[in-house]
Every structure is written in structure tokens, then in C-alpha cells.
Specification:
Helices cover 54% and strands 6% of the residues. By secondary structure, it is of the alpha+beta class.
């Protein structure tokens, strides 16, 4: 019963996601209220079916229904209840099911939050989200099949991996990780929608950035919790071990951080729109790559799941998503345009750009180190590992540079900074940071990068604290200062950006008006009050912004019960001058009327037209006619209000003889009136990165993730001369030639080393003809001696304090064990803890010279 119900829910989720994706894209291309309504319904249905499927699996886990294949794989009657609950995400198939649950929650919340906003974009966004949901539903219905039926179920199961049962972070870390990973689907869909529409304005960059920020916060917490968990469970000493699966979560975090910063430039300056979209798309693609890393068996990691058919399927989806993103970028990235420019001199703008480039360089460095062993194996057929030395050597300079930019950037002003501003912004924190670096040097710090980190870290800390307390200081200074009186009849001097903010807030304050106006920006100094008899002409952008402030109740037809067709002044008791209220025409066909001018032709399918009233700068009472698109706004917003059909249009301004640019409300590459221009640079650069990456991943499918063949196998073992723990004569490898040698790299902070220590000691006592050696990797000698006294030993352990011997042997992480034949050649390398059977088998190979 339970397996059948689970499979049915998965199939229904697949059906809802597939149909919703088709309806979403169709509604984006040919807008209709009914299509948008059904796209939303199907998004909610997908979320509901996924939630019910997860509830069904939890029921099976708690009831110990071993007829369900996943329960038979990870369930057990002997584990506590909390372990049974979290077993949902403890293994491969269940983790995909939990992925679907998190995706359903994100899609439903994002669809609900933006149901009445941005109807240009949202159908496309929902279509992309549900396309991703359809893939993961297919993954559950096909290769994964967590609800497969076991014909003759056992009475009990093995339970989840023991390493997942001994710490409460198992309850917290995976949900945070999935919330960060899966959440990147939402900004990915919004970025794709912006490309399909061909526009990325301030109205749409905010929800994109907000959803990206939520996912980034979850992913940041997950990375911290994952490092804590690795320290507690695996004993990795609290260091970032550069494990491929750890890098899988770090890569999208880097690009998401860069995208968050570049989105601020898009909103503030109107620049880097295409760059921001590229970063958002890359972030999602890296999350899919990370999912492939952990579920394909291609990458060597203690975190990897076993090999399964899920890996190749995810690789197909990664290739399809890469191709879709590249084609979309090549066709539409140029349409996003740029509304401003970056300053070339020292400024906060430039620091943002430098920071973005450093984050991208960091991403490329980590990705190259993670994938390079697969490249070597694909080209040469030899396995190898890239360990901590590579990552530390290349990432430390980039990290220090980022620390410098983090401190200098916020201290600089927007726009080009003068020499006086530079001195005032940088000298005080730099002097304090020099003191901090000097203190570190006095305490014995001699490493150059550490001193630079102290120096730049001091600058960053001081600037950050100063920025945090700046509003507090300004308020305190304002309270102490005298209050200026405002003459009667004069409006206060309000900075232009605040006026625009109030205008936007006023428009948002009326639930009926969810339209978006792109009317230019106010820049410059403080706004001066304007008299009615002022003969100076008012610029068009200022006139529109001023009208926008008074246009907030323009959907007040619901309250008044009528539709206002003529612009007219509106007086308010608290206002110093009348607020001009625009005319409104709510219709699918017809015209917009001006005073004594008769009907003005408009596009038959234009949803809403606003006619702005004439101002004092317009002689003869001429009407200033501005067309404003208010997408999907009905006469009233409520349960019965639905978005209208939008196809765009334009009309000639009959009073000025101008023809505004043609408006495409739903522009896509397929429905554009003219053939799109292909950005060949984006296409070539993307293919140059994507094709080799996919080819390498395909070439390495089916390999054993726990088998790492060192390039040293078959070659002479690197010589060493190390001192034993507790002192004594140094031991050299050359003195051991003539008999097999087993070299075990270990440390006291390594929990798996605890597990294999007893087996190694027993094997050394039972095999006197074999020389066993332990090499302690970057550990404290006193702590190591105490460990050996408590647990006993039968062979010498040598101190490798600086890790040079481990580097020579290409050690990626402990424990790693090398088996050397009597001639001094490395026969085999084993990664992970050993048991007695594995030791005897590998020693036999070492005795026989690898045969």
C-alpha cells in the first residue's frame, strides 16, 4: 500500500511539473490570464504532491515498513526515533526525495509571493522552476525509485551509516545545505526570465537579489555546520580539508557572493546586468555539478554516495542546463543593456568589480583543483589526487586580496574619489591595522601572508565597525544640532533618492497598483521647491517622477466606483499644492482620453494607459501624454482580479509628433520581430568551458570513488629521514630495503585513524617479516605520545611536523597507507581506514612485488 501510494504521488508531481512548465512558457510567450492561473495552480500542485510523498516516506520509516526499498536500505528498529526521522536524507534516494520537498516549498512560496507582480517575467520563471522540478520528479520515478517494493521484506534493516548517527548535526546540516542548494533554483529561474523578456530593471533585480540572499544565507550556515561536523565526526582538526564534496558546496557560494555584490551595482548604477545574470546562472549550474559530485561516484571523497544510475542522469541534466543557459545568454544577454557606467578611478564601484573578479578567480582555482585529477585520468589513464598544498598555495593570496578589497571598498565613496577623500577614508584604519600587524610580528608571526592577513583584516574590521555605527553617530549629531525651521508654504529639502523612495513606497502602499514605471532617475543635489510661476521647463524625467508620486491612488476606481478618463488636479488638506492625478483607461480595446482632445488611439491590446496632466511648463494647456505599462493590473486587486492579456504596443504622440520606441511586453528570442543578434564571445567562451568539463565527467563515469591510484605506484618510494615520537635516532627509508614496508600516514585528530590502529598493531605483531611504520601528519608530539601510550603500538611512529614527507607522497588526507615491495617500489595505496583482511591482502601484493 505505502509503496504504491508513494509512487503515485511521485508520478503526479512529475505530471504537474511537466504540465506547469509547458503552460508557464506558453503563457510567457502568449500571455493570458487563464494560462497564468493554471501555471500557478500546477506549481502549488507540484509542491503538494512532493510534500505528501515525503510524509509518506516518513510514515514508512517510523512504522518500519521494510517493504519499501529505501526503508529496507536505511531503516532499523534498533535506532532512536530521531534517527529514523532524519534517515530521510541519510542516503542517496531519500536525499533526492528531500530535494524535491525543498524545491516544492521554494517554488510555491516564490509563486505565491510574486503572483501579482512582474507578470512579464513570472510565467517564464515558473516555467523554468517547474522544468527543474520535472527533472527531479523523473529522477525519483525512474533511476532512484525510493518507493520500489521489496517482495519478501526482512524483519529488520541495517540502519543508516554509523557516522551519521553519532552527532546531532545530522539533524541540522543537511536541511540547511539543501535549503541553500535548492534555493538557487529560484534566482536561476528569475535570471532566465529576465533574459527571455530582454530586460532587467530595478523592479526585478530586487526579488532576484532577495531570493539569492536567502539561499546564500542557508548555504553559508551549511558550510560552517559541515566543517564543524567534519571536525566532530571525521577528526579533520577544524581545517577546511579541500575535499571534493566540500568544494562542491563552496563553488556556488563563491559565485553567489559575487552575484550579490554585482546586483547592488545593477540596482544603484544600472551596470553589469549581463555579468550579474551570468553569475546567477553559473551558481545554479555549480549546484547541479555539486549534486553530481556526491551522487556519481566520479570524485574521490569520504562524503560520496555509492555508484548508481542517478549519476549519469544528473550529468545529462547538467549538460542540458548548460546548453540552455549558453544559448539563452548568447541570444539575449546584449538586450539587457546598461543604463550607466563605472568610474575608472579609485571608487567603491571599482572595488566591487575587483571583488567580483577575485571571486571568479577563486571559483576557477577551486574548480580546476577539484576536476584536474579526472582530467589526468581521462588523458593518461593514471589516477592522482590534488591535495591541500595546491589549494593553500593558490587560495591564500586570493583570500588575502579579498580581505584587502573588503576593507578598502566600503571606505571609498560611490563615484571617483578625490585625494582628500582617499586620505580621510584609508589612513585612519590603515594606521590601526599596522599596529595590529606589528603586535602579531612581536608575538612571533613571521609568515608574510599571515602578517598581510592581520594588516588587511585590521582595516576591514575598523571600516566595518565604522560603517555599522555611522547611522548611530549621525542620529546623535542630528539630535544635538539645532532644528531648522521650514517657512510656510515651502516644501522641505529632501534628497532626490529619498523622494524616489517615497514615491515607490507610495505606489506599493496601494494594493491595487503593482505596476512598474521606468521613468528615469533623479540625480544631483538637493531638490529645490518649485513655484507655479517658475518659467523654467521641467525635464521629462522629473515631471514623470513628480507625477508618479501623486499617481499612487490611480487604481482608486474600486473605491470611487468609476473610471476616471480625464486628468485633473486633486487637492489634499495637508498638501501645499494640488496633486495632479493622471487619467486612467482600463480596457482591452479603446482609447485614452485627454481634456478637450478627443480619444487618442492606443494599441487594442494595451492593458492600461495613463495620461499625465499638463503642468505649468506646458503652454495652452497641452496634455503631456505618457504611456506607462502597468503589467497585469486590473481595476481592483482582490480574489477576483486576474492579469490581463499583454502583447505590447505603442502609439504616436499626436501633440509632439514623436513616436515612442516600440514596446515589447513579452519579448523572447522566438517571438521577436527581428532575428536576435548572437553574442559569439559568450557562446564560444561558454562552450570552451562547458564541453571539456562535460567530456571529462563522462569519461570518468563508472570509476570507483574510493580507489585512488597514486602516480607514484610502480615507482621508487620518496626517501625520508624522520625522528620517532619521543626522540631517538632518525629512521631513513633506505635502511629498510630488502623487506616489504607498510607506511601509514595518520594523526591523533583523525577519528578513522582510531578505527584502524588496532588492526595495524595486530598485523605488525603477526607479520614480523614486514616492517610497519607510522608517519604522524602535522600533529602535536606530546599528544601523539599520550595516544600511543594509551592504545599501544608495535612499530615506530615518525613525526612529520611540517608535512613535507606527506607532500612528497601526495597524501590528500589521513589515513592513507602505502605498501612498498622489498625493492623500494610503491605497490599500492589505500585511502581510508584498513581492516585486517585488507592489510593481509595488500601485504601479500607487496611481498610479491605487486603481482
Amino acid at each position: 500500500m505505502v509503496p504504491t501510494l508513494g509512487r503515485t504521488l511521485i508520478l503526479l508531481a512529475l505530471l504537474a511539473a511537466s504540465a506547469g512548465s509547458i503552460v508557464g512558457f506558453a503563457t510567457g510567450a502568449r500571455p493570458s490570464a487563464a494560462g497564468w492561473k493554471w501555471a500557478r495552480r500546477l506549481a502549488y500542485a507540484f509542491a503538494a504532491f512532493m510534500a505528501l510523498a515525503n510524509v509518506t516516506m516518513e510514515y514508512a520509516l517510523l512504522r518500519h515498513d521494510f517493504s519499501v526499498s529505501y526503508v529496507a536500505h536505511v531503516g532499523s528498529r534498533s535506532v532512536p526515533t530521531w534517527v529514523s526521522i532524519v534517515s530521510l536524507w541519510s542516503s542517496l534516494e531519500g536525499s533526492i526525495l528531500f530535494w524535491g520537498l525543498v524545491m516544492g516549498v521554494y517554488v510555491s512560496v516564490a509563486t505565491w509571493r510574486k503572483a501579482g507582480d512582474h507578470p512579464e517575467y513570472m510565467p517564464y520563471a515558473v516555467g523554468v522552476w517547474l522544468a527543474c522540478g520535472a527533472f527531479f520528479s523523473f529522477l525519483l520515478a525512474g533511476p532512484a525509485q525510493p518507493f520500489a517494493t521489496i517482495p519478501n521484506p526482512a524483519l529488520d534493516g541495517p540502519g543508516p551509516n554509523p557516522l551519521l548517527q553519532n552527532h546531532y548535526l545530522m539533524v541540522i546540516h543537511p536541511p540547511f545545505l539543501y535549503s541553500g542548494y535548492v534555493g538557487m533554483t529560484i534566482p536561476f529561474g528569475l535570471a532566465c526570465a529576465a533574459l527571455l523578456v530582454g530586460r532587467l530593471g530595478n523592479d526585478f533585480i530586487r526579488p532576484l537579489r532577495n531570493f539569492l540572499l536567502v539561499s546564500w544565507i542557508f548555504l553559508t550556515c551549511a558550510i560552517v555546520l559541515g566543517g564543524w561536523w567534519a571536525y566532530e565526526v571525521l577528526g579533520w582538526g577544524g581545517y577546511w580539508a579541500w575535499d571534493p564534496v566540500e568544494n562542491a558546496s563552496f563553488l556556488p557560494w563563491l559565485t553567489a557572493t559575487a552575484a550579490l555584490h554585482s546586483a547592488m551595482l545593477v540596482e544603484r548604477k544600472g551596470v553589469l546586468k549581463g555579468w550579474t545574470v551570468i553569475l546567477v546562472l553559473a551558481t545554479y549550474l555549480l549546484t547541479i555539478l555539486g549534486t553530481f559530485m556526491t551522487r556519481s561516484g566520479v570524485f574521490n571523497s569520504v562524503h560520496s554516495f555509492t555508484q548508481s544510475a542517478i549519476g549519469p542522469t544528473i550529468l545529462v541534466f547538467l549538460a542540458a542546463a548548460l546548453l540552455f543557459s549558453l544559448v539563452l545568454l548568447a541570444l539575449r544577454v546584449d538586450s539587457l543593456g546598461s543604463e550607466g557606467r563605472l568610474e575608472t578611478g579609485p571608487s567603491r564601484d571599482v572595488m566591487f568589480l575587483v571583488q567580483n573578479l577575485l571571486f571568479v578567480l577563486f571559483t576557477f582555482t577551486v574548480l580546476l583543483g577539484t576536476v584536474f585529477p579526472l582530467v589526468v585520468e581521462a588523458l593518461r589513464g593514471a589516477q592522482m589526487s590534488v591535495g591541500r598544498p595546491y589549494f593553500d598555495k593558490l587560495s591564500v593570496p586570493i583570500g588575502v586580496a579579498l580581505l584587502f578589497v573588503m576593507g578598502v571598498g566600503p571606505a571609498l565613496p560611490w563615484g571617483r574619489a578625490t585625494k582628500q577623500q582617499l586620505r580621510a577614508a584609508l589612513l585612519p584604519p590603515l594606521l590601526g591595522a599596522c599596529v595590529l600587524a606589528a603586535v602579531g610580528f612581536a608575538l612571533g608571526v613571521r609568515n608574510l601572508w599571515t602578517i598581510l592577513a592581520l594588516l588587511f583584516g585590521g582595516v576591514t574590521a575598523q571600516v566595518t565597525l565604522s560603517e555599522m555605527f555611522l547611522p548611530v553617530r549621525q542620529r546623535m549629531r542630528a539630535r544635538r544640532g539645532p532644528r531648522r525651521s521650514i517657512p510656510a508654504g515651502a516644501e522641505p529639502r529632501t534628497p532626490p533618492f529619498r523622494r524616489v523612495h517615497r514615491a515607490r513606497r507610495g505606489r506599493r502602499g496601494h494594493r491595487g497598483d503593482r505596476g512598474v514605471e521606468h521613468d528615469g532617475k533623479l540625480e544631483g543635489g538637493p531638490a529645490e521647491p518649485r513655484r507655479d510661476d517658475d518659467p523654467r521647463p521641467v525635464p521629462a524625467d522629473v515631471r514623470r517622477c513628480r507625477a508618479g508620486i501623486g499617481a499612487a491612488p490611480s487604481v482608486g476606481a474600486r473605491a470611487s466606483g468609476r473610471q476616471q478618463e480625464r486628468p485633473q488636479p486633486r487637492h489634499a488638506a495637508a498638501a501645499h499644492e494640488p496633486v495632479r492625478e493622471p487619467a486612467r483607461a482600463h480596457r482591452l480595446a479603446g482609447g485614452a482620453h485627454g481634456p478637450d482632445r478627443g480619444p487618442v488611439p492606443v494599441d487594442p491590446q494595451l492593458r492600461r494607459t495613463q495620461c499625465r496632466p499638463a503642468g505649468p511648463d506646458q503652454p495652452d494647456g497641452l496634455l503631456d501624454l505618457d504611456r506607462h505599462r502597468h503589467h497585469g493590473v486590473g481595476r481592483a486587486r482582490g480574489p477576483g482580479a486576474v492579469p490581463a492579456r499583454l502583447n505590447g504596443g505603442g502609439s504616436r504622440d499626436r501633440h509632439r509628433g514623436r513616436r515612442p520606441g516600440r514596446v515589447f511586453l513579452m519579448a523572447t528570442a522566438l517571438t521577436s520581430a527581428s532575428a536576435p543578434r548572437v553574442n559569439r564571445r559568450v557562446l564560444v567562451a561558454g562552450l570552451a568551458i562547458a564541453l571539456p568539463l562535460v567530456a571529462v565527467l563522462v569519461a570518468n563515469l563508472g570509476r570507483d570513488p574510493h580507489s585512488v591510484r597514486s602516480p607514484l605506484i610502480g615507482r621508487p618510494a620518496p626517501p625520508f629521514r624522520l625522528v620517532p615520537v619521543g626522540g631517538g635516532a632518525p629512521v631513513a627509508l633506505e635502511s629498510l630495503h630488502g623487506k616489504p614496508v607498510v607506511i601509514n600516514f595518520w594523526a591523533t585528530w583523525c577519528v578513522p585513524c582510531f578505527q584502524e590502529h588496532a588492526a595495524l598493531v595486530e598485523a605488525a605483531r603477526s607479520l614480523p617479516a614486514v616492517q610497519f611504520l607510522g608517519i604522524v601528519y602535522e600533529d602535536d608530539e606530546a599528544q601523539t605520545g599520550e595516544f600511543l601510550r594509551q592504545r599501544g603500538t608495535a612499530y615506530a611512529s615518525l613525526m612529520d611536523k611540517d608535512g613535507k614527507t606527506a607532500i612528497a607522497y601526495g597524501v590528500f588526507g589521513v589515513p592513507e597507507t602505502f605498501f612498498i615491495d622489498p625493492e623500494g617500489r610503491i605497490v599500492e595505496k589505500h585511502v581510508g581506514p584498513l581492516d585486517r583482511g585488507a592489510i593481509l591482502s595488500l601485504v601479500a601484493r607487496a611481498r610479491g612485488g605487486g603481482r
